[in-house]
Amino acid sequence: MTVTTLDPQSALVVIDLQQGIAGTPAAEPVVAQAVRLADAFRAAGLPVVLVNVTGGAPGRVERARPNAPRPENWAELLPELRPDAPGTIRVTKQTWGAFHGTDLDERLRDAGATQVVLAGIATSAGVESTARAAHEHGYNVTIATDAVADMDPVNHEHAVTRILPRISETGTTDEILELLAANGR
Questions:
Q1: DSSP 3-state helix, strand, coil percentages of the chain (rounded to 5)?
Q2: For every residue of 60-115, which 3-state class applies, written as one string?
Q3: Hydrolase: is it a keyword of this entry (predicted)?
């Protein structure tokens, strides 16, 4: 469903825009859109949640997980997101989704959030998993389609066109910012 509205108490949740995942030129367009969203949400006095990942869920999978040690700054949030800005909520996760095993739900509820707008990487993993959990927790969910990306374009396209519209509204950063402005924010 195309984005139609933003609740007055929306929160932006940015997934895995950190040095080891999004610190590449290929991620620059997603980062630029996420920064625009974060700046606008902060200016509107709305919560901005920056999520990073430091581990991985246990369990066997067919694809091998690399066991090489990660660089020291691998989990550091990108500085252009201003992770130390006043009021920024930071969440560290160990799995794809930002709800499982974290205090994200509690922190969103404490902030009065009824809707989450999601941005980040990877569309078919962290973003989709977080969107599913947000939907299951009763939040209205919106995906900023030009502020998400995936290493696999087929997975990205599938998530954006088939999966995410079933559990969220989708729209561009510009469309979301227009709705934010229309709310007087």
A1: 40, 20, 40
A2: CCCCCCCCCCCCCCCCCECHHHCCCCCCCEEEEECCCCCCCCCCHHHHHHHCCCCE
A3: yes
Q: Say how far apart CA 172 and CA 2 lie, in whole Å.
A: 9
Q: Please name the residues in contact with 56: beta carbons below 8 A apart, sequence gap of 6 or more.
A: 65, 94, 95
Domains located in the chain, CATH noted = 10-55+74-182 (3.40.50.850)
pTM of the model: 0.94
Q: Which DSSP state fits 27?
A: G
User: What distance lies between CA 14 and its chain's CA centroid?
Assistant: 3
Q: What is the pLDDT of residues 26-79, one digit of tens each?
A: 799 999 999 999 999 999 999 999 999 998 767 766 666 666 677 789 899 999
